[in-house]
Each structure stands twice: as structure tokens, then as C-alpha cells.
Amino acid sequence: MSLRTSVRQYFETIRFLHPKQILYRCRRILKSRLLHSLGGLPDKTYRLLYPSPGVTVGLGPTPPPQVSLRRLIITRDDLQAGIFSFIHQPAEYEPTGSWDAPGQSLLWRYHLHYFDYLTLLTQNHHSPGESSRDLDLAERLILSWLEANPVGRPIAWHPYTVSLRVMNWMNWYRWVSAQGMPIPDEFSRVFLDGLYRQLVFLADNLEYDVGGNHLLENLMALIQGGCFFSGRRAKTWVGRFLGKLEQELGTQVLPDGVHFELSPGYHLAVTGGLLNTLAVIRSSGLDAHFLSEYVRSMLSVAVALLHPDGQPAFFKDTTLDASPSWADLQALAAQLGSPGLCPVHRPPFVQMPSSGYFVFNGPGHRLIAFAGKTCPDNLPAHAHGDLLSFELSVMSQRFLVNSGTYAYQDPVWRNYFRGTAAHNTVTLDDRDQSDFWGDFRVGRRAGPLWVSVLDGPEVRGFEAAHDGYAKTKSAIHIRRILMIKETFYLIWDRITPLPGGGSGCRNIISRLHLHPDIDIDLLPGDRLERGRRPDTSEPIMPPVALTPDLCRLGVPIGPNDTPIVTCSHRSAHLTLAPLICDRIWIENGWYSPEFGLKEEAPVLALNKDQHLPAELLIALIPGPVQSFAADLTGWPNKMELHINGNTYRLSQLDTNQPEAA
């Protein structure tokens, strides 16, 4: 990379930051380097700086209900055998004397320090022996961590890590105390003292430089710590940080209820954290009405961004293992007095104008589309090239999916999974919408130019455009997604040149990523083979040319004429009919539903090579299709589709009031 390019990337990234972020970032870097040079701050020194008042706890008769914010892939037996498994990477590891975990990835080591696995040691036991072994193991792990990690050590004392760990420690201690299990006095003293000092450290190292969900986790940990401990300082934490939490939620929760990082996965995680904090506050006899209102708003939005399988859509950095279960969230919400959060009837068209999400619900199918910002201006960490992308489920099966998130620190896979080509949207000359660099940085970034809603009695949808190709290719991408009579969808893309944008043939590809479980046929009886070169995105079958006679001039399109793509999984079906494009082929792709887990998956690529302006059009038909034909002689003002013996006449498609008959 040239110096000029590097300077431009830094400038495009930094110019969006708030001065407060830069100031706190410099402060944290200086403090971190100082502590690193000292090898961490010994406990005795830290005691002098932050003397403990002889902390005591105020625990109720029963611990407040909590939901797990991450799905564990480790079992109690694994822990007892000394096996730790995170992000699908199991390892035999005994964290006594050293918690560095050499040879493991950075994210793996962070999970080791989160202590989520303590929840496995709070399960119901079938015998006193099991109970004793679990208690002994938990005490050994906690004491080992306290001894091996002086204050300020990297990873162990990162404020985000501290936040998650102290909440897990408090939940464990509450549960053990409620069960009446014998806790040695000396262990209890050391544990409470170490926990208290972590909270003191956290209060002095809030992540104002990062903000977002990190800062919310900091604040929630301190509020829960204030409810856990007795004493004047603890009460101060509750009052002080509840006020800061209300202020941050006012910034981070958009008017439509979506968390401003725009990731369905992080939205669920933040909602789960707020639910847990609300449960702790109420169990302490306190009240936070504002928190109840935010929880209700965020839960009502969260259910709209779920697929019929009950899991979130893969926009931005979203993984199934880093999101709490919707069933758990709903159960805890009901316990806290917020029932009825999963509506029996879903409206056919849900608009979320602040975040840019649109959700279409038809009988047996759901499409979730995104037309919002690439990321918050001052927080690009979890951005993807998913502007104007969408996902589609039929019945309870996902058919069209974004590729997911495989890793944070692996540069090759990080770049692949957040790149534009890994999403169900359009690339122009193989360029990304935004300039992704580093692990969590974005320089030049795409943004929506306009979003207009098309909501009629028979045709529902939206049109949106983004400027991601404006600077690099002097063009803009416009997409319409329309649901016709709740029966099928039209995806209409236009690439329009900007004035003075130059000439030349452009390579336009609209990719549709299929779930690995889907069976595909291109032509009746001709099954496609899976890719044989998973390290590339080269086509795994020759491109099939679609002649103008078949695609544009009203010749019937069907099994004997053109390669419509039929997809199925058990009793669920989806037909993809390319109405306007030059060629179609299948590429190798990858699907990563969880950190560290990836599967090969086919990608349907619709291509046009021509001078701008150019357009692509595809019909998506949920359910089995016995017959299909299309007449586009009146395009773009009108068209006629014949599906399973039914005729759909569409008119005024190039206006804001499309009609269907």
C-alpha cells in the first residue's frame, strides 16, 4: 500500500471521530503502555491507590433471573477435563500460573477471560459430589486468575473484558450463595476484594474512545456492581452510572428502536444486557422506568429482524454464538412484566426508517432488507458492505443469506466476509462499496442517497440508492425491492452514471448467496456440482448466456427456454427467474453462522457487461413453481408474469406508485 493511500485511509477514518473519542483514546493508550512497561500493577500497589473499605455484599434470598449473552460450545465435562473451547477451537488448557494461552487467537483469549463458562458450573447437580467438584473448579479458576493477572495487563484488564467478567462473577456468586453452598471465608474475602477492585478500575477506564456496545457494557457492569455491593461508593455507582446509561441509550437507540450499530446480533446482545441489568435493579428494590421503556422498544424491533428459525439476520457483524437466544430474552421479559412481545400476526410490510431496515412478510416467507448507513459515523468497527442487501427465508428455512462473520483478527477472512461480494447486493467492477481496512476500520464509506417507500394495496416495497461507487467509478447503485400481492418479489437494480463519469464497459454482478443446505437445479434434471476450489471465488460452472430474445422481448421463460434456478430444502422451495441479465453462473462461496465456523456455499451470480446505464431484474418466487413465463415488451413501464397459471400484470413500475392486477 502506498503512503498516499495509507494517509487517505487514516484521514477518512479519523475525520468522523468526536474530539472526545480522540482524547480518551490517547489517554487509554498512554495508561496501557505505562502499565505494560511495568508488567502490570501489583495488587499491593493497587491497594494503596484504591484502598478497599472492607467490602460487603447485599444479596437477596434469590438471585435475579439472567440470560446468557453468548452461546457456549463447551460443556461442564469439558471444563472438568481441562478443555476450553471457544469460537469452535477446542484446546486442552490449564489456566494456572498463566492466562496468556499461547498459540490461540486474540478472540479466543478474550473469551477465556470473559468467564462465560462459569454458568456451566451453576447448573442443577445430581449429587453432592458434582456440586463440590463444580464449586472447587470455579474457586480454583477465579483464584488463579486473580493471582496471574496484575492490574492493567493486556486482554485481562481491557475494560470490555472486565465488564463481562465481573457480571459473570457476580452472577456465579449470587447463585452459589442462594443454593446455600459452603464458600470458604478466605476465598470469599479474596474474591470480593478482587471483584471490587475490578469495578473501581472500570469506573476509571470507561470506553468513551470506543463508545457503542462497549460503553454500554461498562455502564451496565458498574450498575450491577453497585447493586451487588453495600456501602456509600456502591450506591454512588448506581446513581451516577444509571444517569450515564440513560444518556447513552438516548444516543445509541434510534427512534425506530434499533441499536445504532445496526447489527441485529449486537442489537440482541445489548437488549439482553439491558434485560439483565433491569432484573438486577428490580431485585435490589430500585426503579429505572426509562430502562423498561428502552427494553420494550428494542424487543419489539428485535423480533422483526429475526428469521422464522428464531435467529437474527446476518447484517453487519452478526453471529449466532455471540447473540442471546430469542426464547431466553422473551422468557426473561415475561418475568419482568413485558409479555406479548412475539406477535401472532406479522404485518406484511414493516418499515424502520431510522435504521434503514425493511421487512416483508408473506404467507410462508420473509424477506429482510437493509438500506441504511454503513455504520455510525464515529464507530465503524462492525461495518460490512451490505448496503441494499437482503435475506430471504421460506417456511422456517433460510434460502438467501449474507455470508456472516467468521473472524475478527484474520485479515484474509475478515476482508472476505465483510466485503460487498459476500452479500446479496451489486458490485461494480469488483469494487467494494466502502474502503474496509484493518480489523475494525472503514475509510471512504457508502451512504444512502435516498430511500422512498412504495406502499400500495398490491405492491409494497422501497427504492434506495447509495454513493459507494460515486468516487471510485462515477456511478450510483439504485435498487427496488417489491413484494407483489404477498406472492413473489422483484429485485430491480440500476447502475446510473454520474455526469462527466467517463465511458467504457462496466462489469456489473448481482450476487445471491444460497444457504449451504439448499439443493439447486439450473435446468430440470441438471444438478449443479459443489465447488471444488474453496479458496477462490471462480465460477464452478461455465456462464450461461441469456439472449435478448429470451430476456427482453417477451418470449415465454420456462423450463424449455431459459435456465430459471429452482432451489429446495425438504418441503420448502424457491424459484429464481433472471428476467434481465446477460449471463448467469454459480460461484464458490462461504457461509459463517458462528465465529470460527465456515461452510462452502454456492453463489448465484447475475452479470451484465455494458456501458452505463445498465439494469438487472430478477423475480424470486417462494414455493414450488410448475409453470412460469414473462412478457417484458412494455418494460420498464409495465410487464406481465404468468406463475402457476396465474397472471400478474404490473404497470407504472418506473413511478413511485406501482400497480398490480
Descriptive keywords:
about 25% strand, 5-stranded antiparallel β-sheet, 16 helices, about 650 residues, elongated, alpha+beta
From the alpha carbons, calculate the radius of gyration and give it in angstroms.
27 Å
Strand content: 15-25%
By DSSP, the count of extended strands is 27
**Gross morphology:** elongated
In the sheet with the most strands, the strands line up as 11-12-13-14-23-20-19-16-17
Unreliable parts: 523-537, 546-560
Structural class: alpha+beta
Mean pLDDT: 85
Major beta-sheet overview:
9 strands, antiparallel
Alpha-carbon distance between the termini? 55 Å
Number of helices: 16
Helix content: 25-40%
What is shown here, in short?
The chain is α+β, with helices and mostly antiparallel strands. 32% of the residues lie in helices and 24% in strands.
Describe the structure.
With 661 residues, the protein is an alpha+beta fold. The chain is 32% helix and 24% strand. It is built from 16 helices and 27 strands. The strands form 6 sheets. The protein has a 9-stranded antiparallel sheet with strand order 11-12-13-14-23-20-19-16-17. A 5-stranded antiparallel sheet has the order 3-4-5-6-7, with no helix packed on it. A 5-stranded antiparallel sheet has the order 8-15-22-21-18, with no helix packed on it. A hairpin with a 6-residue loop joins β24 and β25 (638-643). The longest helix is centred in the N-terminal third of the chain and has 21 residues, at 128-148. It is elongated, with a radius of gyration of 27 Å. The termini are far apart.
